[in-house]
Amino acid sequence: xxxxxxxxxxxxxxxxxxxxxxxxxxxxxxxxxxxxxxxxxxxxxxxxxxxxxxxxxxxxxxxxxxxxxxxxxxxxxxxxxxxxxxxxxxxxxxxxxxxxxxxxxxxxxxxxxxxxxxxxxxxxxxxxxxxxxxxxxxxxxxxxxxxxxxxxxxxxxxxxxxxxxxxxxxxxxxxxxxxxxxxxxxxxxxxxxxxxxxxxxxxxxxxxxxxxxxxxxxxxxxxxxxxxxxxxxxxxxxxxxxxxxxxxxxxxxxxxxxxxxxxxxxxxxxxxxxxxxxxxxxxxxxxxx
Length: 289
Prior knowledge:
The chain is an alpha+beta fold and 289 residues long. It contains 11 helices and 11 strands. It has helices at residues 11-19, 22-32, 38-45, 49-61, 83-86, 89-103, 118-124, 178-194, 207-217, 230-235, 271-283, and strands spanning 65-71, 76-81, 137-138, 144-145, 154-159, 197-203, 223-225, 239-242, 245-248, 251-256, 261-265.
């Protein structure tokens, strides 16, 4: 790509060279979702094999992807994000937020969603899909934890904007109630355990912020940090920008031991009802053999 001399020192222009066109962006979107093999990428995006081969080659050459051999006869590769590629995930999530708000939405800043909107459709389409493998997130103990407990009948994953108030920030519709939500799940924790159901709370807050809150509120279940937006990108979860960062909108996923999403609750407006409903739905999942 020919560039004006002034673009040689412009990070935006250099990033545009790497991303190239919308096909490259969609390739990265699908790899973030766990579609890392050639045939899966071609099927999800609808690209011809020739064009997809070209795009993958360019992204490998730019150091955004690397190829990992998974079959020798015939030779087959998986395309995985490098550190540079993983650093683009917040860019993809920010693009999604912009598209949801300004293209698919009416421009309003909100932490909830309309039931006839694109975000609602995208979240509820997760039902029946399997979570990508290897998607561990750092927890309050400072180590990576799996999204799903393999020993539980089900795991309830609930995302929330963040605990604590952002001083000086105007209120955002649907963003309040995160402390209440965690307290309700905390109080219901014995019921979840008796049912063989595990819990994971997830936000884009940093691990130390979550750990401080967990100690203060005596939260008995793990709080996981999606500060690098790996989960948001993998599941195309709805987000909004508040307090200077991208935040998850509040939703609940009920996932079985095989990592399949069995139920989704979104938008979550009545928090006490959603907590009770998530337990009821999780109790209907079969225990692992």
